[in-house]
## 1
Amino acid sequence: MIQFERFELANGLKVLVHEDHDTPMAALNVLYNVGSRDESPDRTGFAHLFEHLMFGGSANIPDFDAPLQMAGGENNAFTNTDYTNFYEVLPAQNLETAFWLESDRMLSLNFSKKSLEVQRKVVVEEFKETCLNQPYGDMWHHLSKLAYQQHPYRWPVIGLVPEHVEAATLNDVKKFFFNHYRPNNAILVVAGKVKTEEVKVLAEKWFGDIPAGPVPERKLAVEPMQTEFRELSLDSPVPLDALYLAFPCPERLSPDYYAMDLLSDVLCNGSSSRLFRRLLKEKQLFSSIDCYHSGTLDPGLFIIEGKPAEGISMEDAEAAIWAEIQDLIDNGVGEMELQKCKNRAESALIFSELSILSKAMSLAIYELLGDANMLNEEPENYAQVSAADVQRLAATLLQKNRCNRLIYKSMGPEHVGSFVGAEEDDDEEGDLFYFN
């Protein structure tokens, strides 16, 4: 059970405080309710670009990292489809440094041509490195385009093409910032060796005067129900053939989310899971295999991916996956098998509560979902899932007429590594921040 206090400033900033006096450290986490789903189709990659721009300096702090390092802290950030998250971890007695840093860039981000050019270059190089010059790096580009026809999840977080970020102007950047990076569109969480009353004073001191903004109403296109099989096969300079089967799945707040999460564990999480044990270990049909879901706020994707073992055809490998799916649909899951997955989920929740940073992040995310106390209800939500729930989800979710199949066909050893731009020698390095 994670205890916390919640209050809200007059400008709409939501603040949560978790006191943990067993550590000398404190974590400050700021979550902005903006992700790649808030971008325009011709201006993709902006949320990720802003993750970088937020480290480019502000009115009173030209170098974000230097003051934090002097205070003994560290920081990072990540962007995904639904939100952008920034955090600092530092000795609790220096917590005010983190308040100063985060409030200054929320109020007065440095909008300069130089900052834009520097961060633009970092983002474009990251696009090349992770998407164009890495085996299977463009997977999300192809899979998203297959699975989504209307919803903005149809482009990946890093953007559709680097040209969108390259074409961004200062006016584009300013508009995006003042539309989304406002206190009334953010959640601030402080965890660690702190006192709630002290955090209230610091929050009011550093964030209270930042004006609220008119956050645009989110009007996202609703993705029509998929009723036909979709496929794409690519000849690519990858080392091994690869198969991806993606199915539309429930959103994070769906009552079926927990059964779906356990279904992915039953199929492929751990050495005793079905696909890993039967197809990789016993039958040796795959050299690697995995199953996961996107966990997005809007309906997402449930994905099974694998690389057939040497000498195994793509057709035989895929047929084996479908046979395992059908077996699960026909015969269900055993109580002991399901309980093992529940225990694993509960252990993951417990381990996530060992770090003050993890607790701060989790509280922010659950507050975004509607109520941070949902975090404390998760063990019971998993415990209530029945074997019948998992079997029902398998039958309704894993249908061939709702499948999006992506296949990478290796062009052979002589082509491996011949990706776009792979021959370029780039001696410049940038600080790369995480994106999902």
## 2
Amino acid sequence: MRATRARGGHLRPPWAGPLGLYHAGDTVLHRASPAAKAAGLAVLGLAVVALAGPVSAVALLLLALAAAALGRLPVAPTARALLPVLVTAAVVAAYQLWQRGPATAVEVGLDLVSLVLAATVVTATTRADRMLDALTRALRPLRRLGVRPDLVALALGLMIRTVPELARSAAEVRDAARARGLDREPRALLVPAALRAVGRARVTGDALAARGLAD
């Protein structure tokens, strides 16, 4: 992924949202081990379940925001990436307000945002290779049950790489359709995007088969 040019002509590292995509830095969180950050995320998840009430929800959100600040996540891109989550949280909170009152609405909405933001911090401060290595080590005890840790890590790595590529491909298709005045024509958007996705899947499958990893 290419770096973008910020105001003033300075290059800034790429940012692609909360999909496990690394944002370069040298903070305490960047230097922490993936296992430690995963454990912290698990503790936060347990706290969300164990603690009730809007006060605890606000406290957990502040904790997630502090972690994002500590990891120096860029504010505007992070907010844009989390916008669908914020909309979802607002809808869920509105439903809870109608069904169970304002206290539950605040708790449920903020807990959802806290969990997603904390997961974003973990993935944004952890390189993909370190995360996959940690996953491989964690799955090694399951080899006795027939699980192949290397293949699981490979599948996750392919997913992390594929999602941004599919998004980029969809944007290119949309731009091409707009240039032809067909941006409101569903077939001009869906058919090329689907063909590109299938083509990428076939190329990936052929590459895996060539390396004996398709079985």
## 3
Amino acid sequence: MDTQILSGKTVSSAVYDGLTSRINTLKTKGITPGLAVLLVGEDPASQVYVNSKTKKFSELDLFSETLRLPVETSEDDLISHIHILNSDKRFNGILVQLPLPKHIDSDKILNTISPEKDVDGFNPVNLGNLTAGKPTFIPCTPKGIMRILSHYDIDLSGKHVVVVGRSNIVGRPISILTSLKSPMANATVTICHSGTKDIFQFTRQADAVILALGYPEFLKGDHIKEGAVVIDVGINRLEDNSDKGYKLVGDGEETSLKEKASALTPVPGGVGPMTIAMLVENTVEAAERSL
């Protein structure tokens, strides 16, 4: 099958182009959209993500600061930092990079971020608004998935979507977004997870599969029906004999999926770039709401 590759790089470029005039309008009013990032510990993947985010803000001439805290930082200290940032008008958005060290309660931290500055969309107020069908800040990765589908004119209305994964970061919010009575959505949605018996009986029925499992090359071509759309959120390192010593793969096995899928997001270069683009967009939206 001639599979359409859904490029997050292409869509994110269009997003940045569309934000230019909005950013310029804010700057004429004396506002430069600002993001505060809190990074606790030395997790290598988190360091890469934070560097990518701050680099993009710099490229767009936006304001961002990263507060790097030692791994032994206490929960109370982190909460104190967030309280300060909540009242700091230089920052329209606050992002706490996950995962946090095990001694810190992530839910308690996310609850501390002001809903008006919660550009990751993880505060219960914003998650509740999303569930009610009146989203304010939508979590960046699910929002990016919907933007990819919209860009490539993939309408899910009346379709069966199977989401593999139920995290509050991706699985649960994308299941809500795809089922909302809104343009490009309005799908019938099934959520599969570690407790699901025979996940593949569901993926074989799906018109679209959204993979957010964190298990390399879990889904293969014979696990989907002919012509299904596959959105692969996973990014995993597999050791190989290349100069790098590893390759990046998704939660789907790309080669076999291309034989049956009508459309597919690549890894890397698919959903990943959209997560950062939506973080920028949410920060710009937060700045606009502050006027």
## 4
Amino acid sequence: MIPTLNAAARLPPLLAQLRAAGVGEVILADGGSTDGTTALAGARVIAAPRGRGAQLRAGTAAARGPWLLVLHADTRLGPGWEEAVAAALAEPGRARHFAFALDDPSPQARRLERAVAWRCRALALPYGDQGLLIHHGLLAAVGGYAPIPLMEDVDLVRRLGRRRLAPLPAQAITSAERWRREGWRRRSARNLALLALWFLGAPPRLLARLYG
């Protein structure tokens, strides 16, 4: 399942990858795209209120299979992901996330990847761009995705807790376009500030405005 909003330029490689792997139903939880996203072949489109949390909640409610693989539109999956996912299906009581990687050869990208790996090990805090493989029953047991516009990923993994969350031995490779456009230090500092504000109790709608 993929939350989308005007993702027609970024989404086709991921859809092609999922189709080639023969995955089950692919759902686009769309927040009102106007660029042709909803006309892309190979996916079932669910219209949802705009905002990642609300879109993910609508998409998970519409999913028919027992397992959900939640991905971002600007992501593709690294080698070995199919085998890693298949092995994880034997343990429905744990959610799984991929290792974070960026499609950029720069030293800044490698430093950010190492920082994210530390965050996941030390804090058990993967973000949504690392994907999430979760059984429908486990998702329901923790209350599902909250219909909030930002930090829906952090909110969910905090409710899952470390014991019900584990890494997959494969990468989710995310577009580095936003870091290149906004500056590596500036974007990383903003993301860290938003996370701190979340833990201090700032409203998600305020954080979404700050995020842009």
